[in-house]
């Protein structure tokens, strides 16, 4: 048996076997709280300053090596350097060594928590976030002080990177060719770690609670990005088993990748569009490489995050034109700003809500800030002249919101016309269906727009009333809940009744086990992470609509999730035995907490 | 904004002071705060920034950040020491050109 098995959220699939290497460990958990004898105080202060100086020298060296295209990250290193030199950190720590006789690491920790208190009172979330930078800096120094000299830049050989958290600044320092996989304590599905891992095509887990207790530097670990597990110091049998699975998964991935440019067509000739969800223009390469037929969801908010000013219309237009032109004649669906909830920009920092998931977010936020909304609408319209562009509004709860959004769009069009700027006057407009309210009035909404796109991640959360990042209730987050399936079915039916197309862009679209059910409903397109495309296309090509409709019919008669899961499993065993061995964990959800 | 330098006396002795306005669109965020602290560190004088009743050390990026001074915010720079005048000139210049490299 392994020493330990811990689980987290998989943000990039695959299996990696290698040595664990910790960076940014949360040292406080094991920091020795010691006092030093008064005659040793000068020695301890020297120790402290030496650690600061070492980190400063390292950061300066890293800064000099930052490639030109990452210069924006370099300013983060500058900020870190300033914090290192700041008397409020080193000076205060020195003071605590003198006055309280603390050891250097604890004295620094006390200085950091003073800052944490000062920053905690600040309303501006951007400035409050700088607290994380102080943490990062202090952590580097504490690492030196504790003699565990684990530096990101010092990795020898290839390793599996473990961290409390990885910031964009950290990733600048990573030597990517040495990394086999990532695992972090912090972070969610959309964190930087996930994006990074997916672009490197290596497995990654985030939200691994017990990571720092269970794994030590140099441990042999297996990262199973398929089931979201880390196996620490596996037994011979486990190791042999996983080595085999890793090889099998690799050959499966290669095989499906070779066929990824074949059409997504069922045995009996039904075509489904397979599109991709992306947030960076750079991801188009992955979309095309993996056989994506277009971009079904471009998350426009990324351009607004991690900066202190708002992007200008020209800046957005350039970016959007790039995307539209590269993908043309394939389609690109721009989702208008989906800020709020967990994504904020500092310019609107005052927004402090007790229940942000139900607050001023997405289209609500845009309709309250029409100036900002219009800039984006104009940029998307201008890009529509260069490619096959559509646009959709997130978080629509009623007909009036759609009409208001369309009114702003009409105004933007009129302005562009007056200014003699080109756009596609027939650019299709859609709404996201993410709220139960939108599901229930889908037939009305269908008359207002050209297409629907069902966002299942939010739809499931709002339908079941569950925050899937909340450990206590995340077991209730079930894509195959009868309510979810009925909701999706209602929306597809309403769309087709009105003669408009319907797409699905939640994670369900990239779940090979859910896809046959969606096909059975007659969904027109599925949009997913680029990496999932080859596998989903393969599923589509291995099935026929007759079977899918039969499965859907049976599934819709089930009253419980476990019953549905069983049916889906049977179907998969029968038709896609190869996928079972890799993806069965997706169905491990049950109705009761274990 | 007034360019006037005032000489005042407090418990800490004589100091020079000048009012500045935060003109940068996003207030005193990380980059301008870092720049300010960096420039302040190059002077002998001890320099503080006063905002409402908060008084912070201009040489500390962390202190400057905790002011959370937004656009339009009026601050007072105070300096004591041999190069106080020079320091105030340089720092108010930074505020005036919105912390652009120049």
Structure characteristics:
heterodimer, A: 594 residues, alpha/beta, eight-stranded mixed sheet, eight-stranded parallel β-barrel, 23 helices, 47% helix, globular, disordered C terminus, B: 102 residues, alpha+beta, five-stranded antiparallel sheet, 5 strands, Phosphocarrier protein HPr (chain B), phosphotransferase system (chain B), HPr-like (chain B)
What's the total helix number of chain B?
3
**Poorly predicted runs of 5 or more residues of chain A:** 589-594
The amount of beta strand of chain A, in percent, is 5-15%
The level of helicity of chain A is 40-55%
Number of beta-strand segments of chain A = 16
The major pleated sheet of chain B works out as:
5 strands, antiparallel
Percent of residues in β-strands of chain B: 25-35%
Question: Hey, which two chains have the biggest interface?
Answer: A-B, 25 and 20 residues
Q: Helical amount among residues of chain B, as a percent range?
A: 25-40%
Number of strands of chain B: 5
Largest sheet entry of chain A: 8 strands, mixed
SSE ordering of chain B:
EEHEEHEH
Question: Which spans of chain B of ≥5 residues are poorly predicted at pLDDT below 50?
Answer: none
Count up the helices of chain A: 23
Mean pLDDT of chain A: 87
Described by its quaternary structure, the protein is: heterodimer
State the shape of chain A: globular
Short description:
Chain A is an alpha/beta fold.
What does this structure look like?
The complex is a heterodimer of chains A (594) and B (102). With 594 residues, chain A is an alpha/beta fold. Chain A is built from 23 helices and 16 strands. In chain A, the strands form two sheets. Chain A has an eight-stranded mixed β-sheet with strand order 1-8-7-3-4-5-6-2. The model of chain A is unreliable at 589-594 (pLDDT under 50). Chain B has 102 residues and is of the alpha+beta class. Chain B has helices spanning 30-41, 61-66, 84-96; strands at 6-10, 13-21, 46-51, 54-57, 74-80. In chain B, a hairpin with a 2-residue loop joins strand 3 (46-51) and strand 4 (54-57). Chain B is globular. Chain B starts with 5 loop residues before the first strand and ends in a 6-residue tail after the last helix. The mean pLDDT of chain B is 85. The A-B interface holds A 75, 78-79, 82-83, 85-89, 115, 118-119, 122-124, 126-127, 130, 133-134, 308-309, 346-347 and B 25-27, 29-31, 34, 37-38, 41, 57, 59-63, 65-66, 68, 70. Chain B: Keywords: Cytoplasm, Phosphotransferase system. Chain B: It holds the Pfam family PTS-HPr.
């Amino acid at each position: 048996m392994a020493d330990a098995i811990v689980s987290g959220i998989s943000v990039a699939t695959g299996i990696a076997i290698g040595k664990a290497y910790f960076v940014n460990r949360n040292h406080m958990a094991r920091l020795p709280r010691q006092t030093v004898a008064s005659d040793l105080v000068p020695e301890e202060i020297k120790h402290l300053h030496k650690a600061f100086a070492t980190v400063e020298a390292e950061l300066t060296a890293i800064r000099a090596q930052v490639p030109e295209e990452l210069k924006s990250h370099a300013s983060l290193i500058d900020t870190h350097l300033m914090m290192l030199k700041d008397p409020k950190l080193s000076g205060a720590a020195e003071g605590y060594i003198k006055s309280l006789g603390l050891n250097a690491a604890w004295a620094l920790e006390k200085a950091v928590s003073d800052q944490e208190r000062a920053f905690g009172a600040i309303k501006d979330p951007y400035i409050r976030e700088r607290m994380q930078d102080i943490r990062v800096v202090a952590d580097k120094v504490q690492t030196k002080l504790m003699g565990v000299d684990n530096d990101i830049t010092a990795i020898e050989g290839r390793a599996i990177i473990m961290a409390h958290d990885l910031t964009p600044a950290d990733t600048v320092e990573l030597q990517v060719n040495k990394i086999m996989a990532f695992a972090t304590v912090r972070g969610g599905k959309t964190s930087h770690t996930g994006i990074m891992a997916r672009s490197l095509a290596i497995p990654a887990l985030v939200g691994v609670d017990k990571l720092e207790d269970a794994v030590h530097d140099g441990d042999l670990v297996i990262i199973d990005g398929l089931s979201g597990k880390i196996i620490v110091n596996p037994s011979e049998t486990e190791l042999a088993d996983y080595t085999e699975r890793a090889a099998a998964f690799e050959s499966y991935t290669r095989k499906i990748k070779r066929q990824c440019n074949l059409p997504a067509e069922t045995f009996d000739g039904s075509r489904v569009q397979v599109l991709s969800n992306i947030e960076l223009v750079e991801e188009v390469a992955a979309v095309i490489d993996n056989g994506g037929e277009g971009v079904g969801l471009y998350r426009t908010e990324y351009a607004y995050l991690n900066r202190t000013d708002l992007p200008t219309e020209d800046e957005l237009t350039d970016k959007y034109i790039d995307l539209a032109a590269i993908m043309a004649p394939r389609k690109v669906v721009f989702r208008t700003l989906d800020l709020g909830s967990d994504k904020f920009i500092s310019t609107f920092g005052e927004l402090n809500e007790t229940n942000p998931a139900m607050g001023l977010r997405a289209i609500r936020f845009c309709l309250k800030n029409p100036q900002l909304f219009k800039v984006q609408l104009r940029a998307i319209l201008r890009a529509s002249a260069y490619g096959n562009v559509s646009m959709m509004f997130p978080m629509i709860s009623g007909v009036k919101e759609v009409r208001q959004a369309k009114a702003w769009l009409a105004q933007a069009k009129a302005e562009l016309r007056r200014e003699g700027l080109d756009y596609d006057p027939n650019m299709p407009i859609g709404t996201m269906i993410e709220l139960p309210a939108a599901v229930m009035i889908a037939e009305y909404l269908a008359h207002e727009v050209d297409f629907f796109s069902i966002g299942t991640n939010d739809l499931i959360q709002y339908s079941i009333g569950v925050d899937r990042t909340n450990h206590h209730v995340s077991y209730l987050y079930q894509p195959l809940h009868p309510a979810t399936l009925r909701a999706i079915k209602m929306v597809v039916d309403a769309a087709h009744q009105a003669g408009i197309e319907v797409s699905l862009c939640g994670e369900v679209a990239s779940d090979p086990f859910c896809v046959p059910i969606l096909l059975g409903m007659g969904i027109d397109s599925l949009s997913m992470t680029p990496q999932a495309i080859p596998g989903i296309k393969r599923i589509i090509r291995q099935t026929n609509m007759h079977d899918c409709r039969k499965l859907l019919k049976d599934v819709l008669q089930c009253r419980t999730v476990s019953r549905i899961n069983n049916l889906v499993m049977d179907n998969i065993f029968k038709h896609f035995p190869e996928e079972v061995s890799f993806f069965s964990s997706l169905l491990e959800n049950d109705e009761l907490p274990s | 904004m007034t360019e006037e330098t005032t000489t005042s006396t407090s418990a800490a002795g004589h100091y020079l002071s000048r009012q500045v306005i935060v003109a940068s669109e996003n207030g005193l965020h990380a980059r301008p705060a870092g720049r300010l602290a960096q420039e302040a560190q190059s002077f002998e004088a001890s320099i503080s920034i006063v905002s409402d009743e908060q008084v912070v050390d201009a040489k500390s990026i962390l202190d400057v950040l905790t002011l959370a001074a937004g656009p339009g915010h009026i601050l007072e720079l105070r300096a004591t020491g041999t190069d106080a005048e020079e320091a105030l000139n340089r720092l108010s210049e930074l505020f005036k050109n919105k912390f652009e490299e120049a």
